[in-house]
Amino acid sequence: MRYFITFSYDGSKYSGYQKQPKMKTIQGEMEKALKQINGGKNVSISASGRTDAGVHAYNQKAHFDLDTSITPTKLKAALNSLIPDDIYVKNVSEVNEKFHARFNVKAKEYIYKINMGDYNPIEKDYVFQYNKRLDIPEMERALKYLEGTHNFKSFVKADEEKDDYERTIIQTNLMRDIKSVNQIVISILGTGFMRYMVRNIIGMLIEIGEGKYKSEDIIKILDSHDRKCAGICVPACGLYLKDVYY
Amino acid sequence: MRYFITFSYDGSKYSGYQKQPKMKTIQGEMEKALKQINGGKNVSISASGRTDAGVHAYNQKAHFDLDTSITPTKLKAALNSLIPDDIYVKNVSEVNEKFHARFNVKAKEYIYKINMGDYNPIEKDYVFQYNKRLDIPEMERALKYLEGTHNFKSFVKADEEKDDYERTIIQTNLMRDIKSVNQIVISILGTGFMRYMVRNIIGMLIEIGEGKYKSEDIIKILDSHDRKCAGICVPACGLYLKDVYY
User: Fold this and answer.
1) A68: which DSSP letter?
2) Does A100 map to a domain?
3) Contacts of B88 in chain A (CB under 8 A)
4) Contact status, residue A101 vs residue A30, Cβ threshold 8 Å
5) A111 and A227 assigned to the same domain
6) Interior CA angle at B30 toward B83 and B92, to 5°?
7) Among chain B residues, CA nearest to A85
8) Which of A154, A185, B28, B86 supports an S-S bond with A230, CB 3.0-4.6 Å?
9) Are residues B210 and B181 located together in one domain of the fold?
10) What residues of B are in contact with residue A121 (Cβ under 8 Å)?
11) Which of B122, B125, B131, B243 to substitute to test the interface with A, most A CBs within 10 Å?
């Protein structure tokens, strides 16, 4: 029986989503719990994609197969009782065995939180602390240039080898946090993302917000297909996988 | 020279504010840093009051005396470079040596955060997770009965010996979180609070919200002067010292 789950996690104490020997990972914790539920037999979980160390998820999605049949309600309760309390399974459903949580992804939304106000120790692992004023309207204009289909080679790691660097960004948004005038939240909805792509885009936006570049420079930087032309990579703590669409 | 500081902290990794041998405490970390700044001589810090293990502060306030004279700007930078990153000094000023951060307190505001929605692992140490529906208007009415001067013996630990259990609650408020319909924030501004008083009040409000008591029962409970008549004590993680007024 194939199951499809939605789960959230606080990534701050994990070496990322993907299982690695001797490291505490989200996948590792999930598979340990699933093995217990599956009568001691190993279970492989397939998520919509990995997230890096320190990155959080509001709605990560994944599928896996169990040998035993168990109702979604019971499976949700069993999983939540076995996984650490900084991971939470929000929803479980049964799906057709043809469904694949990674291959069937239509779009993903990431958000990135930046705090320009006083450093807040309570949010240290959950927001990027940035102590300079940023030109928000200029950043918003830059963000709009990214919408559409582009080659994003300038925004992936220089040594990342891909057959195809073209991705489509469906929609972007820059919101001031309604609770705090000094916080902004940038949201990017796209058909697919390469490693570090969101954090490199946000880093570029910050350099635009600082006045080092103009918003329209982002077009040249996209066209350069050269990582060295783009900006910094921002820290993982501000990044959240917000949702995955099928 | 006497200095007055405003500081915030994430209480989740501390055994409370007050210094205790072999325990990680806010006061302990602050005094360790101050000793270094004070050329190796011990410094005693006097805060507006202690907070229990797991309780957070947005604006805790304290004073201390240094043998060396240092500008507030430099002192703020020095302190922040020496304390752990889950404590942050927001403001430093010089004050008259007659000023006392505890004795001169006029009022304090505490807030308490309750989440009735899906458990969110990202907020596990920062909100009280409550999985039942609460009758919010009834809780609001109960809260209003607490305003004014009352004997709060029913809301302190049964074995807490005090000369005087009378305290004045100046203002209360119950707000729905603007970001999430399932979160509420209760704020209580008062001239003084006894140990566990806020958490015991919130526990009582929750039992009223559940329907175990009516809002007006809170009058009888106050009048009983008996801890056993009142409700549960809620966990520390939802509690924040919001501000201190002089």
Assistant:
1) S
2) no
3) 118-121
4) no
5) yes
6) 85
7) B121
8) A154
9) yes
10) 8-10, 85-88
11) B122
Please judge whether B86 and A121 are an interchain contact, meaning their C-beta atoms are less than 8 angstroms apart.
yes
Asked if A200 and A241 sit in the same domain, the reply is yes
Q: Measure the CA–CA gap between A155 and A201, rounded to whole angstroms.
A: 6
Q: With contact defined as beta carbons under 8 Å apart, do B63 and B22 qualify?
A: no
A31 within domain boundaries:
yes
What single DSSP character describes residue A31? H
Helix runs in chain B, H state only: 26-37, 72-82, 136-146, 197-210, 217-224
Sequence-ordered strand ranges (E) for chain B: 2-9, 46-47, 56-65, 87-95, 107-115, 128-129, 148-151, 166-176, 183-190, 239-245
Q: What is the dihedral of CA B30, B32, B38, B41, to 10 degrees?
A: 130
Does B20 fall in a domain? Answer: yes
Inter-chain CB proximity A126 and B121 less than 8 Å: no
**Under a CB-based contact definition with an 8 Å cutoff, are residues B89 and B71 in contact?**
no
The model's pTM: 0.87
> How many C-beta atoms surround the C-beta of residue B133 within 10 A?
11
Determine whether the interchain pair B8/A56 forms a contact, defined as Cβ–Cβ distance below 8 Å. Answer: no
Residue A8, token pair as written in the block: 């959230």
* Residue numbers in B near A119 (CB within 8 A): 88
Q: Mind listing the pLDDT tens digit for each residue in A35-86?
A: 999 999 999 999 999 999 999 999 999 999 999 899 999 999 999 999 999 9
The tens digit of pLDDT for each residue in A156-212 reads 987 778 889 999 999 999 998 766 778 999 999 999 999 999 999 999 999 999 999
Scanning every residue of chain A, which has its alpha carbon at the shortest distance from the alpha carbon of B80? A119
CA pair distance A228, B90, nearest whole angstrom: 37
Token pair 């329209």 is found at A216
Whether B63 and B129 map to the same domain: the answer is no
What is the domain range of residue A12? 2-95
- Nearest one of A92, A86, A12, A20 to A53, comparing CA atoms: A12
Q: Which DSSP state fits B135? A: -
In the numeric block, the tokens 């015991």 are attached to: B200
Strand A87-95 versus strand A107-115 pairing type: unpaired
Note whether A131 contacts B: Cβ–Cβ < 8 A: no
Q: Which of B95, B122, B152 is at the close of a domain? A: B95
Residue to test with chain B: of A29, A79, A122, A123, most B Cβ within 10 A: A122
Question: End of a domain among B95, B130, B155?
Answer: B95
Written as one letter, the residue type at B63 is: H
Q: Contact at 8 Å (CB) between A215 and A139? A: yes
What's the number of domains chain B is made of? 2
User: For residue B157, what pLDDT is reported?
Assistant: 83
User: Who contacts B49 (Cβ-Cβ below 8 Å, separation ≥6)?
Assistant: B17, B102, B105, B108, B193
Q: Do B85 and A121 touch (CB under 8 A)?
A: yes
Chain B residues with CB-CB distance to A87 below 8 A: 121
